Each structure stands twice: as structure tokens, then as C-alpha cells.
Fold this protein.
Amino acid sequence: MRTGANVISSGSLRPAVVLVADRTLSAKYDILFEGIFATMQTTHIPEVAVRNFVAPKVRVDGNGRALTAPLGLRRVESALVEYTDLGAGDVVCTTPEYLPKLLGPWVKVVGVSSSDPLGHGMSNTTTTSFWDGELYTRFWTRRLLETISKARENYGFKVVGGGAGAWQWKQYPDETAEKCIDVIFEGNFERQGPGLFADIIADREVAGHVVEKTSAAEMVCPLRGASLLGIVELSRGCGRGCTFCPMGTKKMEHLSHDIILADLETNVANGISSVVSGSEDFFRYGAEGIKPDAAKLCELLEKMQRVKGLSFMQIDHGNVTSAAQLADSELREIRRLLTWEKPSEYLWVNMGVESANGQLVAENCRGKVSPYQPDEWEDIVREVVDKMSRTGFFSVISLILGLPGETPDDVERTMELVKYLENKRAVIFPVFYEPFREEDIAAGKGFTTGKMSERHLDLYSRCYEINFRMVPKLFWDNQRAGGVSLFKRSMMRVLGKYEVRAWRSKFASVRRQIRERELTKV
């Protein structure tokens, strides 16, 4: 099957496997915050504005290959070429716009990826609780599946649904997905995925739901093309045990220097100079357990810094207690090694605080507080935000409203913590608790504005007033370091001012609803 140059006269390939992601993941973002902003939008913003400005489409080459594709699809592409008889010409990562031109009787499998296909990710359920319209991740995923379904009727290929949000297709009913998707694949692809695709291509019977519980880090193959946002995977898994996160039960495993550097060089060779570290806890790279190994992390960063053409690396996730275990001198050295061609004043790290009540956090996130005690949690959070600031980092804090077991006293404690943080180098994003496990979904444990107390809203809006002041500075700085044009930065700032007014108006509306609801109880 290794055809290599399987081409038809129009210049398009005749691939056996076509890989595609929903439109929010098939866009050209220059920095991570642009991607986060885009995936949280609902259809209350006109589609033409989102498509052309917030999430401009990815270009393809003459054969329909996406010039950048989500990291997960790139991993699938590499694993299929490495572990099956498929050749490079048999597997194509494309875009939703170009997809129909690649589909035909030669296609055996279409792989579809989405991070939030039904809109049940915690950040996005929070957004849709406040705003009218449908989340674009859901809207565009449904449209993509409808396109695939029509072609499937004509050509008879099988459809595999995967990505970070694949669990939603299993946990929630969705008529479009049920009609289109033959196999739901959850987890990392390398161990079971290649065999699954080979079986489908050979017309062998396969299971309708496949779950890979391991990280399969030792089987990762180098990227064959640029990744969305230049995301470079450092580690897989987490193992902290958070009940609302699929990574909670997966032990953290680290990718080798060779793979990481090869992926960096692939991105640079394809014109990507601003990249993102991919890890559930950046500070734990190279560590055996939950204690960070600063020497191993710095060794990797020194090698990454030598790759020519890289301007700026953004850090996604870090754990509060990982940062707490690092000395100031170690954090300063890490910060120095993250200063590339275009230095950033706001080099941010997203850290999940969830609540000021460490006991509540420990009950819902078994290992998040370790190696400390729950009653130390609030003090540790304060100390870590101060430490991150004095060593050159900027803290992006997340809170979860409505954690199972939360009391009004917990809300008050968290409010006091926010008051402490509001004059620090930090922003704070509160999200609503959204269950991941089937039993919690069935029990209706999710949090919504309908369950919100007025004090919850006070906490939420206070956090956003901090964000209204600080996020524009962070955004502007990151866009500058990421090479975004002055025109686009200015337009995004104008859009941001509109968003601030809209959010404040929405807070006032929700407050009226809460008070009316309380009056009906009297």
C-alpha cells in the first residue's frame, strides 16, 4: 500500500486515510490566547467575523494537505506511516474546507478530531451559561460530520472520532455523531490506533468504542508537518487524580529530547517561529514523580534554545505545588532559558487553584495538593503567585465554581483569596464545574447560572474585573512576541473593549435573574 505519490490529475492525492479536525482547530492562530479566545465563542458573534478574523482558515498545499494541523492529528499521521503499511501519500491531514475534494472511493477511513465536539468542556459550558447562541466548536463539528455523512453514503468509508473531546460522543447522546461515527477512539493513538485503522482498511470487524488508558509515550513518532500553534509535546498524562479531567488517571510520561527537538525543527522548517509547550505540568518535565527535576528541565530548555529561528515559547499548564517545590534560583534559570529571540514581559503559566479550601480541592483532585497538606493550600497559592512574579513569570489562575461539596463558606474563602491576588501579576478565570465521569453526569452535578448564588456572581465578576484590566496587556505583549501585526493587535484590542462592555451587561442581567429566582423562593 506504500504508494507514496498516489496522485490524480487535478493534483490532489488519493489517500486511503483522511484526517480532519473541526473548524476551531483548523485555523491559523499566532499565539495560544488567540486559540483559547476563538474556541470559547458562540454564534452570538456572526460566523463571518469568526471565520475571517478571530479564527482565519489554515491554507493547504496543492494536494490539499493542511500547512498546519492539530498536534493530535499529526501524531496519528506519523503513527500510521510508521506502524502500518500506509505510505506518506496514503495519509492526509486536511481542512474542513478542502475535505470534500479529497473524498472518493479510494478513501477507507476518515478520522475526525475535536477538543469539544458537544460543548461540554468546563471553560465552554461556562461561556454558554452566560451567552446566547451555540458554541462554535459544537456548531462547526456538527457541520463537519454532516459533510462527512453525505460522502460516506456515496463511498462507504468508515469514520473514527477522536481527539481530546471524544469522551463526549460516548457520554452524551448526539444524533449527528451516532449517524456518522463508526468508532469512538479515546486516548493516545500510538498503541491501539494503527492496528484499528489497518483492520478497518482490511474490512475486519472492529469495536465501536476503543479506550487507550496508557500514555504510549515511548511509541511517539516525530511530526511529519507543522502543528497548530507550533505545539511541541513535552509530556503526556498527569496522574494527579482530578475527577473532572481525562488526564487525571494517566501517569505522566516524558518524551525524549530527540522527539521534542525534531518536532521543534519541523515547525521551524514550516515557518512556525512562535511555539507552545504541550504538557499537563511544564515544571515536571523529566521528573520521576511529583517532585520537579529542575536540572532535567533546564537541560531540555538549553537544547531547545539552540534551535535557530524560534522567537517565543508559551507555556500552557503548570501545577501550583510543582512551582512551590522549585527554588527562586531554579525558576529564574528556567525563565532565562525561555527568553528567546523575542522576549515576553508576560510569560504566563496556567495553574489550577480551583478553590481556597484545600480540603475541597483534595476531595475532588486527589493529588493536586501533594506533597503538601490540604490546610496549607491557600497559603501555598499565595506564596506561589508571589514567587512566580518575582522570578519573571505571570500567573493565569483558574477557579472552579460548584465543585462537589462546595459550601457558601468556601465561596467566601475563595473571594478573600481573589482579593489578595487582584493586585498581583495574575489574571483569574473562574469556570463552572462540569462532570466528566458517567456517574457524575447522570447525577446532574454540573454547575450553571441556574445554580449560581449572588455571592458566586460577586466572585465571578470580581475575577473578571481583574481580567478586564490585565488581559489586554498580556494579550498585546504575547501578540507582539508572536509576530502579530500592529493592525491585528489594534483590532483585537477594539474587540476586547466590546467584550468588556458585553460581559458587564451580562453580569447585570444574571444578577437580576438570581434575585428574581430568590424572591420566588420566599
Residues 17-211 form one domain. The mean pLDDT is 92. The radius of gyration is 23 Å.
